[in-house]
């Protein structure tokens, strides 16, 4: 039977992610064996090859490229989630950040100036911020549900993306193909790798800064204290003098700005162009990353890396071992499932049920 | 000697870290009103839960009319003629009386038959109640009638009542006692749990006193003084808080024409509340729970904003200021609900010390928290108020209710408030700690703090307050000097019998 611990267990809160990864490997291996693959080879392909395998020189930079937007978005989301403010529409804010950032950069084309990239960064953050402020404002003013509004705005953003790809931002020299000019060939607006071949671009730097910023905010600053307090005991937060409206505007706005930044760094760097199929679901996956990292900044950093690893490893396993894509998704699902399941042990302990004397 | 109705022999029940009941034995005779007396945490609830089949004892036996009695679940306890009225009502506000009663029955009869049986029973026992009224509209006393009638419909041999008078005005208590006396005269035994000694002295035939899970004595209440029983309960001589003759200063807090709509659906609206508290004065506010106490505290703490002029502190209008601004001025509050309102359950005591202490204790600079200073402040509270905990890094939820209460009150008292508003300051605290909390409040007042103490414990209010007012459906009666007030007058201020029909016995 389960018994509530008087204190959350420190040891278990650190051990949970490790135990969850091990359990996922075990049960995932069983799954792969049933599918007729060598389980050790499959697990090795997913977890080992991208990091230390023969072609790891190619995969390792990919880890940073894929992990950075996940971490950047998840950090923003985690602040809101901690306060019980549910921004589900990071995907839309990511798209708007890309559109605003790219739009600002392309407006200067073909000017060559040092200030273009910083302006794009600000524009990208602004695009995400304004898109997240819509649900925030509606919630504060009219009490609407931010989950629904932010989610619906994702689809609006996708339509806007299609529209600008085919219209406003379309490359005039693109021979009629949809999509904008490529930033990879516009130096002033290009988010290039800081060290060639490393995958390290400004978005990765921003992700690390966000992790440190969030850590300091949550542990040292009164705003972070109020965020945690609101999530854990809303009535106590009100008693402590927290203004809920201001907190909603801050949390949604900040998570929107970070998602917008992620979109802007992606469009001006690895992706290069604004196109109809620009977004690939980072905004939604980041929700999983945030929870996988237990809404803790350092945890999110590790979770973002792990998630990127299973993506890249999963792709290798698909192409090399012929594992079906669905099996990889089940594998990722297992990871989240085991994490949440073992998480129970942080607050509860298992005791052998004792038969009671009547 | 006749066989007792229920005989408990050596009942023991241990929970991890605490023995709730240790070898408890006593008998309840036929047609006897037996009091079970003890402080919070003495093990009264565990004991009755064992009798009612909610908890199984680790060892010991129970005999019902000489037969072994070991109910595996409440259903079989009810089948054996044991019924229980809980302290907290389990009624659905949106349903009517008959529907609520039908919900608790194994095989409810047709609604019409049930309604007529409810009428019949309610008239026999002098508990007038219309089966078709919606429970949400009933007063606390009337809700209790629903629970009692629900039990009486089973024709019980033993009726267990857990703190039945904590929600009643003195007049309502009298009506209840007439009913209980009638039940006794018909041969029903009653196990009556309470810590209100005067009630037990008027009603009960025998009393068993529990302390720390042990049966520490029995007495005949009508022949024992309340003080003696209290000392048996506590196990030591009681210290009465000292109140020195104080001079009152100028008016510190002035509330005029305060009206606030109910913040939630089942809350209470405050209606035209007037009161003034002078420096050094303790104003006691009594009243049955749910008559606007929470709302009044919210309005004074700044959680609920009003018109600016409705509340004045030293002449300054503060009705529109939030909690932080009021704390800065010196108006501090301690709400009734400890977990989730006064303190965040999963946060450490250090973090909870910061929760209200940040402004006045200077625990932040430029928005950054000073953790080491906060920890020192938390340790100071723990030491000054004898909070039993291994240290300030423990989560608030790991503390027992009484210990957390000491922490929450201590946190405000140590911040040197100019005005302190407390709601149920000693709720769930043992007698010795309650006395020290009351003493701390009186000491504050002696130093010139204006104190408002909202409480449902009339004895407490009589003990510490200089003037007394009562809340009744969101209206505050005109405050009167405490000295010379009689119980009858207090009862009338609290709303008398709440328009309840008097028992026709």
UniProtKB/TrEMBL annotation, chain B:
CDD domains reported for this sequence: ABC_Carb_Monos_I, ABC_Carb_Monos_II
Domain ABC transporter, residue spans: 6-237, 253-498
Superkingdom of this protein's organism: Bacteria
Keyword presence, Ribosomal protein: no
Sorted UniProt keywords: ATP-binding, Nucleotide-binding
One annotated GO molecular function: ATP binding
Keyword match ATP-binding: yes
Protein name as annotated: ABC transporter ATP-binding protein
